[in-house]
Amino acid sequence: MGRIRNLVAAVAVAAIATTTVAACGGDDGGDGSDAKTLKLWHYESANSAMGVAWDRAIQIFKDEHPGVEVQFERKAFEQIQQNAGMIINSSEGPDVMEYNKGNATAGLLSSQGLLTDLTDEAGKRGWADKLSPSLQTTARYSDKGVMGSGNWYGVPNYGEYVMVYYNKDLFDKYGVKVPTTLDEMTAAMDTFVGKGVTPLAEAGAEYPAGQLFYQLALSKADRAFVDDYQLYKNPVDFHADPLKYGADTFADWVRKGYVAKDSASLKAEDMGTAFISGKAPMIVSGSWWYGRFKSEIKFNWDSFLFPGNKLQAGSSGNLWVVPANSKAKSLAYDFIDITLRPEIQDLIGNNGGVPVAGDPSKISDPKDRKLIENFNTVSQQDGLAFYPDWPVPGYYDVLVAGFQGLINGSKSPDQVLDTIAKPYADGVKEITGK
Amino acid sequence: MAVTLTPADRAVTPRPPRPARDRHHRGASRWIVLTLVTLGALAMLVPFAFMLLNAFKSPGDYSTGGPLSWPSEFYTKGLRTYWTEVDFPVKLWNSALIAGSVAVLGVVVSLLNAYALGIGRVRGRLWIVGLFLLANMLPQESLIYPLYYVAKEIGLYNTRLSVIIIFTVIQSAFGTYLLASVMSTFPRSLLEAAALDGAGRWTVLWRVVFPNLRPTLAVLLIFFFIWTWNEFLIPLVMLIDNSTQTIPVALASLQGDRLMDAPTTNAGSLISLVPAVLFFLIFQRTLARGITAGAEK
């Protein structure tokens, strides 16, 4: 991965250096209402919720635009992740594509003038009304490429959020009830520890540990904290609550045996398979597991929102973006519009995904419905708090290193907060110039 | 690399004819060495065994039992999914075309370069060879943006030709370095004899130098092919259409944002590995033939 990170950095630097070139080439796309082909890329697998729903959307698009050829290609995530800037800066790019949300991805490209401003379309076609404020955060970027305000550069189609998945059979076996507050959750985990079962599978080598820390911090946080941490409204003090509470509680959980010490070196995949194989009663992770759990788990399981939290780690999913070089912009807008229709949104929901504008009453499977109801609850109370590694580039590795130390006991919570505070401050300085 | 350690002709000889007296030299140390080599070989095979084991396992099976468990059913859907979803025959053709062209072109360019440097003894050859080596040591990451920019400007972005040109240059940098040092040890008397017979430079290259270097060139060919076959980064950047992509890039499409599908990835790796292994096995025979042909002369 180190090689790849270096590459991303190198490409980013080079891309910034050529921003002027990009800006000059950005205007020849035109409206393209007479275009006869729509080049469309995304990177969801064919049998995933989004893959299924978007296949249907392509079909509808074809029916409504006879005479227009749709050139759809399924791409490798990594290829888009690494090369999007280079691809859409050439004439070989797509007319509409799925792209990662966030400052380092969609934000960066928008600030380089490589993406089409969708603000007018969002107003005209009613996209702005369909998406709640915390979903819009990742769709809009300032001229510096910082999310949260400014023009629309992308349109999300699905959402994601972090929740607690639990093994119902194990809960029944040990007489544990679904917790509704953090205290009940702690009590439930004590029960498991008392019976010699580690209650929570964790993965210190990848994103899950950082997300658990963030969830714990969010239990003491409000929207102002999220704005400070994610959108740099005010400086963040790492040695005060909520972040201090998050780190202390995490360390507490490790000490009490809720989280196994040897999970420091595990990957997300290991955590997931520990749950699927029925060894772990609970995991705290995102809705991206849902489809896989549904098809692979043989015991009874379900999910609940992280107990007591009003804010949850989560966000909109990836975005539809229209490259500035697109030759069929109005067709691209039509396609995006179709993906937000109730029919497609319900299809996402019925296949185990989380639609952004879904109607739970249209979802047949009760477990799917609950997934979407929970998301709607969070989204409507403006509760999506994004992810801990978002604020500054390269922060993912910082968090992983920090919480690995916390899980294996080589660092105290204070030391961990120190290690993660400095890169954050440096990164924010770089972005805001303050 | 073993090739640089001994004169070219011997370099690739896998088993020199063993003198009969060796039979009387058997001691305990021979058995120890044999055991170590066997263990080493087995250790090398372990990853392949895992790949094979998991390629025929269903995702559910993998998640519940882990990578070590024995599959509960013989699951081939992973293989079929991979084959159809990435349109494997197209990728196979692309990879074969690119790696094959690079292997042949790279060897030809290396040979011509090295002839000038190693036998022609041009002025400042040490520096030129050093420069080639440097070009080979540069990390690809630092080359990628200039390459992208040039390819885009001259209209070769997203074509297989761009990748063929790039790798021909990169591989022949190594080839030139290697062959130039091999050729500098080429027996002078042979060259002088040829010159006395009235052979020009071109004739010397094709009639004297080339036949003697053939085994080394064959090894280079195989290396170039396999290295290029496995290349990921430059094809990933330069080939953006599904119709021009190579196998390693296709394999990467199985890895998602946050999820991985281990059995399908294993199945994909298995299919993707087979052509390279076949190529190696086939050319291993050609290689051996080439050596015997040289010995008869």
UniProtKB/TrEMBL annotation, chain A:
UniProt keyword Nucleotide-binding, yes or no: no
Would the keyword Transport turn up in this protein's UniProt record?
A: yes
Q: Give the originating organism.
A: Micromonospora costi
Q: Lineage of the source organism?
A: Bacteria, Bacillati, Actinomycetota, Actinomycetes, Micromonosporales
Quote the InterPro entries the UniProt record gives. Bact_solute-bd_prot1, SBP
What superkingdom does the record give? Bacteria
PROSITE patterns, per database record: PROKAR_LIPOPROTEIN
Protein name (Swiss-Prot/TrEMBL)? Extracellular solute-binding protein
Q: Which family does it belong to?
A: Belongs to the bacterial solute-binding protein 1 family.
Keyword annotations from UniProtKB, A to Z: Signal, Transport
Name the Gene3D superfamilies for this protein: Periplasmic binding protein-like II (3.40.190.10)
User: Which region is the signal sequence?
Assistant: 1-22
UniProtKB/TrEMBL annotation, chain B:
Tell me, what is an example of a GO biological process annotation in this record? transmembrane transport
So which residues are the signal peptide here? none
- List all Low complexity biased stretches: 1-13
Q: Which Pfam families match?
A: BPD_transp_1
Q: Which domain of life is it from?
A: Bacteria
Compartmental location: Cell membrane
Instruction: Provide the protein name.
Output: Carbohydrate ABC transporter permease
Q: Source species, please?
A: Micromonospora costi
